[in-house]
């Protein structure tokens, strides 16, 4: 069939235009071998800065993708992303706890992650909609002073700490995202009335401290008999200082599906507004895969590995022995929690 000269010229022009278009990775097909852009990606990081630094350094070393990190707290950065909306410069959001992930997701600001990014992480450590994914975990524990409490005197449940005989004997850091995530689990498991009642009793019984490590130090010093914290504050102090702030402390795991056995998930999500989705998802995929999870196993963050088929650090109580309650991470509601805690006089 004969083709006219004008049609031939138009075909050449179309082909040239198509060839000039940038290659855009479809959501879910990003690879750690993606060609990096000149600017790289920006990560809003609410995880521990030292842990994220390890992740970033290994990721950049393996891929050549530049990562700029902006550090902040869970809800601070979550609220900032919501305020920024489609104009957010963030490509990826990392948190210590999942309520801030739910906040951003409920605002419709995450892009769905691909199957290869999600697959290394069990369903119990990620939301059903696939908009973000768990990258690490931490267990709720009762850190107690071994000179003041014997095992037979320990609370059998987190709910026991509401009993009048625990007045003045235990501590927590109510203003922190860590403790608020634990209250979020209690709310999901036991309902609003039971949670409000427990918080009211907490106001009477507990001594507030600013930070889990400060609360643990208070236990170590005998100021209180125990504190509700996350496990890695104790494990880390034991490993790094030989117990300088925890020599008189041991950990009690509530187990049995108790709210006090709650395992909080650290999350990673890719922003729908990201202009670097290929590189952004490559980073999230790295975190859920072998490389990112090996950083947890081999490093000194002492958080649980949750993906990539990688075992957690050998110093940790095995994750499958914690008997954690089943909690939907996407349904943890920080606003409801802070409202209840404010009403109880804790915030």
TrEMBL record:
Keywords: Iron, Metal-binding, Signal
Superkingdom of origin: Bacteria
Gene Ontology cellular component terms for the protein in this record: outer membrane-bounded periplasmic space
N-terminal signal peptide: 1-25
Residues engaged in binding Fe cation: 48, 96, 232-233
GO MF entry, a single one: metal ion binding
Keyword hit for Membrane: no
InterPro entries linked: Ferric-bd (IPR026045), TAT_signal (IPR006311)
Family: Belongs to the bacterial solute-binding protein 1 family.
Record's protein name: Iron ABC transporter substrate-binding protein
Organism: Azospirillum palustre
Classification lineage: Bacteria, Pseudomonadati, Pseudomonadota, Alphaproteobacteria, Rhodospirillales
């Amino acid at each position: 069939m004969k083709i006219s000269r004008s049609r031939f010229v138009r075909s050449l022009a179309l082909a040239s235009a198509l060839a000039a278009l940038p290659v855009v990775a479809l959501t879910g097909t990003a690879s750690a071998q993606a060609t990096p852009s000149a600017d790289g990606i920006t990560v809003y990081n609410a995880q521990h800065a030292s842990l994220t630094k390890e992740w970033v350094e290994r990721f950049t070393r393996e891929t050549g993708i530049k990562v700029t990190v902006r550090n902040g707290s869970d809800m601070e950065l979550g609220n900032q992303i919501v305020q920024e909306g489609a104009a957010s410069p963030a490509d990826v959001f990392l948190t210590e706890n999942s309520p801030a992930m739910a906040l951003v997701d409920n605002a419709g600001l995450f892009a769905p992650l691909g199957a290869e990014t999600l697959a290394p992480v069990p369903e119990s450590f990620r939301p059903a909609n696939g908009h973000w994914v768990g990258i690490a975990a931490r267990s709720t524990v009762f850190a107690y002073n071994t000179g003041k409490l014997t095992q037979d005197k320990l609370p059998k449940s987190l709910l026991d700490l509401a009993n009048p005989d625990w007045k003045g004997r235990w501590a927590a850091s109510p203003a922190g995202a860590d403790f608020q995530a634990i209250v979020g689990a209690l709310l999901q498991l036991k309902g609003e009335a039971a949670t409000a009642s427990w918080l009211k009793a907490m106001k009477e019984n507990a001594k507030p401290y600013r930070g889990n490590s400060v609360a643990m130090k208070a236990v170590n010093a005998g100021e209180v008999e125990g504190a509700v914290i996350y496990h890695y504050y104790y494990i880390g102090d034991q490993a790094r200082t030989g117990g300088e702030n925890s020599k008189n402390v041991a950990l009690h795991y509530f187990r049995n599906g108790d709210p006090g056995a709650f395992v909080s998930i650290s999350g990673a999500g890719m922003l729908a507004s990201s202009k670097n989705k290929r590189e952004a998802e490559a980073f999230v995929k790295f975190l859920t895969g072998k490389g990112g999870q090996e950083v947890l196993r081999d490093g000194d963050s002492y958080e649980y590995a949750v993906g990539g088929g990688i075992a957690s650090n050998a110093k940790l109580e095995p994750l499958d022995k914690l008997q954690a309650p089943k909690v939907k991470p996407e349904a943890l509601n920080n606003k409801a929690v802070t409202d209840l805690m404010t009403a109880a006089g804790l915030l």
